[in-house]
Design goal:
- It is a single chain.
- By secondary structure, the protein is mostly helical.
- Helices cover 55% and strands 4% of the residues.
- The chain is built from 6 helices and 2 strands, in the order H-H-H-H-H-E-E-H.
- Strands 1-2 form a two-stranded antiparallel sheet.
Length: 165
């Protein structure tokens, strides 16, 4: 089982010792490894910021899920299967010119933000604090952690394909 603490090894491990040019290698129409790392960083930082902003809220209730959200949540959070070929939600698409250093630093900051947040808010706010995911609906902190783990494993496979490991 992968945890937040494992994400740097899972995502950045295949890129360790690789040149800047390898961080920019991509198939036509696809993201570079640097862009993939930045995409993951954007999601980590955004969700951590949302939880941090809501930590003072009174206990919350989960909104009713749509059938599509229920199915996606079961597949991603339950089974651990991330669908291929989905378009990234607006705001999570990385810039074309993202550098290795920028993407790596942003990603590590996102992981650190989540580790700090978990230390501050878990277990006390485990089940009564929610942030809406664009495709899965309202998620708790543990559900967001699970999402980030599954999402990172999905993109780590793409990174490994691009660098040939």
């Amino acid at each position: 089982m992968t945890t937040l603490a494992d994400l740097p090894a899972v995502v950045l491990g295949p890129l360790r010792g690789r040149s800047d040019a390898e961080w920019q290698r991509r198939p036509a129409g696809k993201w570079t490894p640097a862009q993939i790392v930045e995409h993951l960083a954007i999601g980590l930082v955004w969700s951590a910021e949302k939880f941090r902003a809501r930590r003072g809220h009174e206990p919350m209730q989960r909104r009713r899920q749509t059938p599509a959200e229920r199915i996606a949540k079961f597949l991603i959070l339950g089974v651990g299967w991330y669908p291929q070929g989905r378009k990234a939600p607006e705001g999570t698409v990385p810039a074309a010119g993202i550098t290795r250093a920028g993407a790596e630093a942003h990603f590590l900051a996102g992981v650190a933000a989540w580790e700090q947040l978990a230390g501050e808010l878990l277990p006390s706010r485990r089940s009564d604090l929610f942030v809406k995911h664009p495709r899965l609906g309202d998620l708790t902190m543990p559900e967001w952690v699970r999402f980030h783990v599954v999402h990172a494993r999905h993109h780590a496979r793409q990174i490994r394909e691009r660098v040939g490991t």
